Amino acid sequence: MKTLGVIGGLGPQTTADLYRRIGELVDVSKTGQRPHIIIDSIPITTYLENENIIHEREFEPVLPYLINAAINLEKSGADFIVLACNSLHIFTKEITEAINVPFVSITDTVVQTVLEKGYKKVGLLGTIRTNSSKMYDIPLKKQGVDLYKLDVERQKELNKTIIRLINNTYDQSDSIIFHDAVYKLFDNGVEGVILACTDLHLLMNVTDNFEIIDAMEVLAQRSAKIIQNG
Amino acid sequence: MKTLGVIGGLGPQTTADLYRRIGELVDVSKTGQRPHIIIDSIPITTYLENENIIHEREFEPVLPYLINAAINLEKSGADFIVLACNSLHIFTKEITEAINVPFVSITDTVVQTVLEKGYKKVGLLGTIRTNSSKMYDIPLKKQGVDLYKLDVERQKELNKTIIRLINNTYDQSDSIIFHDAVYKLFDNGVEGVILACTDLHLLMNVTDNFEIIDAMEVLAQRSAKIIQNG
C-alpha cells in the first residue's frame, strides 16, 4: 500500500470529509489494513484565506505554507501528495518541483473524469480565482470539451457562499444560491457540472439528481485507488 | 499557537470528527489563523484491530504503530500529541516515554471533567479491554468517585457494536444497544456516563438529553484550548 500525504485545512471540514471518504473507499477486507494517511492541516491566516477568495489578490503569500506542508509530508513518508483545495492548484508546478514524490492534481483527476464520461460541454463552479486562472479551460479545450461559467454577478454571489462554507457560517440560503447556479449552467446545455471548489459538495442534497463531477469525490476515489494499487 | 499532532485512524471516521471539531472550536477570529494540526492515520491491520477489541488479547503488537506515529508527529513539529482512541491509552506510559513533547491523555482529560462537574457516581461505556484495564477506575477512586460498569452480557453486546462502528457497518440496532446500555447505567443511579470509546459518540441522537461525558468531545475541547493558549 502507498502512503498518502494530504495538504489540508482549506477548509478543515472538507479535509475531514476527504479523509473520511478515503477511509471508506479503501477496501480493508482486501488490503488487510487501514490506509496510512498523513494530513498536514496548514495554519494559513484567515486574512490571506478570505482576501484570496473574495478578491483576485495575489496568492503568492500562501505558497510557503503549501511547500512546507508538502516537504513535511514527504519527509514523514508520503508516497504521493494531494492538496484538498482547488484554487491553490495554480501552484501545481511549484509544489511538484519542491518534492520528489508524485503530486496528484485535482485538475488532472477531474479532467480525466470528464473525458471518461464522454462529455463535450461541462459547467464549472468554483471561486473567482479558479475561474479566472483557466486551470480547467485550457486542458479541457485541448481535449475538445467546452467549458461554461457563471456570469459575473452570480459568480460574485457564489464566492461569498464559498467564504461562508470555509468559515462554517453557511445556511439554507447558500444552498439556494448553489442550486440556482447549478441549474443556470444546465440551462446552457451542459452535460455535467464540475464542483471545482472542494467545499461546495457540503451544499449537495441527497435528493439532487443532476450530473455532478465533485472534485472532492473524484480526488478521494483516485487517492483510494493509488493507496490500494500503487 | 501550538501545533497539535494526532495519532489517528482508530477508526478514521472518529479521527475525522475529532479533527473537524477542533477546527470548529479554535476561534480563528482571535487567533487570526487556522490551527496547525498534523494527523498520522496509522495503517493498523484489521486483524489486530478486531482481535483486540472483540477479545482481551494482548495489545502489544499495536504499540510499534503508535510509537512510530508519535515520533513522526514530533519530528513534523507537533508541540503536543493526542491519541484518538481510548482503549490504546493503556500505552500512555510507553508513548510518553518515546517522545519529548507532552502526550495529552484522554483518560486524564475525562477524569478532570468528571471532577469539574462534581460527580460522585459515574458510569462507563467502552470496549471490554478499556473496562478491564481499570484505566478509569483507579484515578477516579483516588478522587472519591465511584465507577459503574455494564454486566458481562451487555458489555459483550456493546463490544460488537463498537466493532461495527469502527468498520462503518453499524445501523439503527446499534443505536438501540447503545441507548439501552446508557439507561441501564442511569438506573444504577449514576450522575453521568463516560463515553470511553471515542467512536460511541457516533450513536448519539441530537435529542438525547442525559448527562454524557464524551471522551471525543472533551479531548477536542482540551486540544483546542492548548492550541490557542499554549
From TrEMBL, chains A, B:
Example GO molecular function: amino-acid racemase activity
Coiled coil: none
A Pfam match: Asp_Glu_race
Superkingdom of origin: Bacteria
Keyword tags: Isomerase
Record-linked InterPro entries: Asp/Glu/hydantoin_racemase, Asp/Glu_race, Asp_race
Family to which this protein belongs: Belongs to the aspartate/glutamate racemases family.
NCBIfam families referenced in this protein's UniProt entry, alphabetically: asp_race
PANTHER family: ASPARTATE-GLUTAMATE RACEMASE FAMILY, GLUTAMATE RACEMASE
Protein name: Aspartate racemase
The organism of origin for this protein: Candidatus Amesbacteria bacterium RIFCSPHIGHO2_12_FULL_48_14
